[in-house]
Amino acid sequence: MAETAPAADPWPGYFADRGHPGARRIGAGAEGVVYGLGGGRVAKVWTGRPPTELTRRVYADIARHRPPFATPEVFEVQEHEGVVVTYERELPGVPLRGDSAHEDYERELPVRHRNALLVVLRGLASVPGTDAMRRLTVQGDDRPLWQGHDRFQDALAALVARAAARHGAALAAHVPDFGAGVERTLNALRSLPDAPVTVIHGDLVPPNIHTDAAGRPVAVLDFGFCTTAGDPAFEAAVTAAVWDMYGPHAEEHAAELTRFFARELGYAPAALTAYQAAYALVTYDLFGMADDDGHFRWCARHLRRNTVFSARVP
């Protein structure tokens, strides 16, 4: 039987008919396929869940405050034969580095990487939290994070309680004294003082930070996993924890970055530790709930050594 020739990609023709004759496919991922249109714009043909109007408002809120790097911005949304197409700002640069699940990080953290992270954290902390950000739902949850709350710390504590109740038994099988650890984390979060409310990206893993040839951050992408408005110390805490999740020096890197951010950004170490425990408790079940899931294993391992959750002496 003769082989069937692969179907021609119809999308360049679609974009040409709409005034973009030079459209070319430049990438594909879990969300969909991206086409370069020129003039600083791209189009994304969505196979995953497309951005909502609320997400577009959050993007616009961030862009309006002009952080020192580009961020996503959706200019137009179309639908073609049931497929959503978005026209977006083209984001420059290349990923700061690959994910630690796919490449081993060296023991010594490069200075250029630490400095790039500071630029990104300070830039995001300069963007005030908005009503649209407060209305976002963190992945895995069933309601806007801030619903019924006036403080981020209390809203996060309520999220931790809901997440621990979802499938906590699976995590408790790998984490000693689980129930008491959850209570310690809730008490720590609720006792944190008020803090500025700024945009939170919530997933600043290395591939989500793009840099130029000199190593300067020029774009931050992939908002949505844990994006909200909140204490910028939460962003720093999560970034320190997830920068290197799976490499041979992961625990050492997390501790080093936590100390570095506390010193350079003025955040209380105890607050960073509490926020790291909270992150593990609200994301542990998002990809799988067994030892064969890397994120689940990481969350369990982090909670066992987290001094707020486990009441260990540092």
Automatic annotation (TrEMBL):
<dbReference type="GO" id="GO:0005524">
    <property type="term" value="F:ATP binding"/>
</dbReference>
<protein>
    <submittedName>
        <fullName>Aminoglycoside phosphotransferase (APT) family kinase protein</fullName>
    </submittedName>
</protein>
<dbReference type="GO" id="GO:0004672">
    <property type="term" value="F:protein kinase activity"/>
</dbReference>
<keyword id="KW-0418">Kinase</keyword>
<feature type="domain" description="Protein kinase">
    <location>
        <begin position="20"/>
        <end position="314"/>
    </location>
</feature>
<dbReference type="Pfam" id="PF01636">
    <property type="entry name" value="APH"/>
</dbReference>
<dbReference type="InterPro" id="IPR002575">
    <property type="entry name" value="Aminoglycoside_PTrfase"/>
</dbReference>
<dbReference type="InterPro" id="IPR000719">
    <property type="entry name" value="Prot_kinase_dom"/>
</dbReference>
<keyword id="KW-0808">Transferase</keyword>
<dbReference type="InterPro" id="IPR011009">
    <property type="entry name" value="Kinase-like_dom_sf"/>
</dbReference>
